[in-house]
TrEMBL record:
This is Signal recognition particle receptor FtsY. The keyword Transmembrane does not apply. It comes from the Bacteria. It comes from Lebetimonas natsushimae. The gene is ftsY. Residues 83-241 form the AAA+ ATPase domain. Its EC number is 3.6.5.4. Residues 84-285 form the SRP54-type proteins GTP-binding domain. GO terms for biological process: SRP-dependent cotranslational protein targeting to membrane.
Amino acid sequence: MFGFIKKSLQKTKDAIKEVVGIEKKEKLPRDLLEEALIEADIDYDLVEKIIDKLPNEVSKDRLKKELEKIFDVPENKFEINDKPYVILIIGVNGAGKTTTIAKLAYKFQQEGKSVILGAADTFRAAAIEQLSKWAEILDVPIIKTRQGHDPAAVTYDTIASAKAKGIDVALIDTAGRLHNKVNLQNELKKIVNVAKKAYVNAPHKILLVIDGTQGSSAINQAKVFNEVVGIDGIIVTKLDGTAKGGSLFSIVNELKIPIYYVGVGEKKEDLVEFDKNEFIEGILEGLYSE
Ligand SMILES: Nc1nc2c(ncn2[C@@H]2O[C@H](COP(=O)(O)OP(=O)(O)OP(=O)(O)O)[C@@H](O)[C@H]2O)c(=O)[nH]1
């Protein structure tokens, strides 16, 4: 899948080139670089932190070193080393959670693993329907209930069913109504506790789905979720549809949590493991041109 991250950065690169021009360069003046990084939606404070350490004329290699430091966070790889391996997917509505769950299910299927889905976003009927459609397309079992029923119960039943059927991976969708933090907190905490009751090692991973088109403004959202349940990793969706790719630097810098995957399109295949080197290389290509 190499090359997909770079390709999905096209809009971000275009935005950068609007500032620096399209011709190939050996070095970039610091103030122009500053402007370009802000244009790519790297948070202003972080841009200042990067720029402060650089000379007046900045080479590609020198900048690369500075950008690499930002991604100095825990490893973003995980192994399915338990059965069932339970992954809780959290994030606000519309972030791309349902699609991401389908993409993850497909990825695990490709690796020869069996998958079950849990529709624990019981708040919206549409969420249950949408996930059910994906379950049908992917031909995987799904545990669901009627709208308004207890999401923790769905979580329990999904894990219990995975255990009973010897399924490798359980992917559980959750609701994400951020406007009411107390409710969200109670609901997510309950889901996590009940998951543990169903299987003591669960949830193995809690992954936050962020809408990449929101750029740096998604950081506060991520912080709230991290405070509420503690996030293991981030999945950024719609990277292909945004000129705000630079926000990934801000997100990682602020949260110190690794990005596991990025969504690079709407199809089930369009999920790639995040490769920080390819990402940085993509941004540098925008700045210094290929
Ligand atoms: N271009 C692009 N579109 C995406 C990507 N991921 C999701 N989408 C689209 O974004 C829209 C919202 O995605 P959903 O998965 O329905 O959103 P959601 O977060 O599940 O919504 P809730 O169920 O409310 O949480 C859909 O039209 C998806 O096709 C991506 O990586 N790239």
